[in-house]
Fold:
Amino acid sequence: MGIADADMTFIAREVKARSGQVIGPDKLYLLETRLAPLARKETLASVGELLTAARLRRDERLIWQITDALTTNETHFFRDRQPFALLRDRIVPELQQARPQGRVRIWCAGASTGQEPFSIALMLDEIRAEGRGVEAEIVATDISERVLEKARAGLYSQFEVQRGLPIRMLVRHFEKVGELWRIADRIRAMVRFQRFNMLDDLRPLGAFDIVLCRNVLGGFDPDARRATLEKVAAQLAPDGALILGAAESTVGVTDAFMPEGGYYRRTAPPAPAATVAA
Amino acid sequence: MRTCLVVDDSRVIRKVARRILEDLRFRVEEAGDGLEALTFCRKAMPEAVLLDWNMPVMSGIDFLRALRKERGGESPIVVFCTTENDIDHISEAIKAGADEYIMKPFDGDILQSKFIEAGLLTHEAA
Structure:
């Protein structure tokens, strides 16, 4: 019972250093609910003991597992709906027109258990079925190897497939495996899952036309949020689109983006300072 | 206020569904089997029907096929809500004219999500 201040300070610092997520006092409830299963797995009596063990042993593996458990975001298919309608009806068609031969590169940052990248894949597949072929590559990243494992398997519970997924899509693109539902190989093959930390150098991921970074930056402190958004801007095509979570915005955080009805576009990089005429 | 007819032979399920639907601002009517539901619809077509599959007297799927042949029977949005959770049953329901399909057990989130899919609620109102 109870979490020592020293353990709390330690774990907050370690989680922030690894993931950017700030675990403030308001997140105390998260510690108990998210870490209790891990404590049990480690055969420790409580979350308090788990944190003490991580601090005293400086156990890297344990600290990562704690980070993992505290930073996983809730997700479901076609979450908030509107961004996907925007992608289907506006963003993807415009990019297609601008790149008649090329493929559209999409990055889902904080992809969690895969519902978001698969929603995009499903949406692109439906566009294709309507005869508007679109060449796309979807890269889905998350800091947590555990959630990516589930994402790669493409297996979802009955509860998960009933949140946000229209029944016709379920019938068309999933098969029932025991009590679970597996997404079709055709859809699974459209997404490449990769473990990646948003705090790292983004350049190895390459350039993107569309970036979804929804409900990822909320837990970052303001400096980390600005720095990350500016790194994202550098990887985004000049006519590319950034989509954030419903309650998030770049406004007041960075000038690298400007809002454009539900999503964000890059602003032109600042012009070089004009020479002062004498 | 729009009406949703809840068709289920379980009084408990009807009660649970009623509470969720009233929160979503529907007027709720109840029927204990397909025939009762059909009788209700012949008097006044509801905007929505939440429909169980296995019921005495007349099953949900038989009710749906009969409803879609009634005058005005194409207008209600029908959402199945049943323990039948295999592809065959779901496909049969869609073919018979169901708009959405809930696999029991369900909760308020699932019902709301499915009513949005079926066009009975907007995302903003949710």
